[in-house]
Amino acid sequence: MATAYDIIIRPIITERAMSGAADKKYVFEVAKDAGKIEIKKAVEEIFGVKVASVNTLTVPGKEKRMGAGRPGMTKTWKRPMSSWRRIPRPSSSSKVWSDKRKECNATCLSKLLSRRLPPDGR
Q: Where are the beta strands (DSSP E) in the chain?
């Protein structure tokens, strides 16, 4: 069974993907064989949020030249767009809950960004 970090490979940080962040819609690169339910559970586990919906899109590989006229292909990958809902805060100790959530989100995001990046930083 794959872990949540095996399913979610990296966040997609582009201008188009970040424009949806205001509406709580986030874009990731995920494993090609992952389904919507697996993606939803992985995002909820890593970021501690409730996912409202997951829409997936398979991005086909592009044909590229590899050297002196040799044809090749880039890899095909899957891009889900997930909408998040707010988690209701507990009525008591809301400051503690807020601090823990901020700490968790910061550490989870840093773990996600540092994981699976090649040495050249792409």
A: 8-11, 25-30, 50-59, 63-65, 71-73, 77-85
- From 75, 90, 88, 93, select the one nearest 32 (Cα to Cα): 75
- The residue behind tokens 């409202």 is 52
Mean pLDDT of 75-89: 75
DSSP state of 121: -
| Dist. CA 58–CA 80, nearest whole Å | 8
Other beta carbons less than 10 A from residue 27's beta carbon: 19
Which amino acid does the sequence have at 63?
E
Burial of 74 (0-12, 13-18, 19+ CB in 10 A): exposed
pTM for the model stands at 0.63
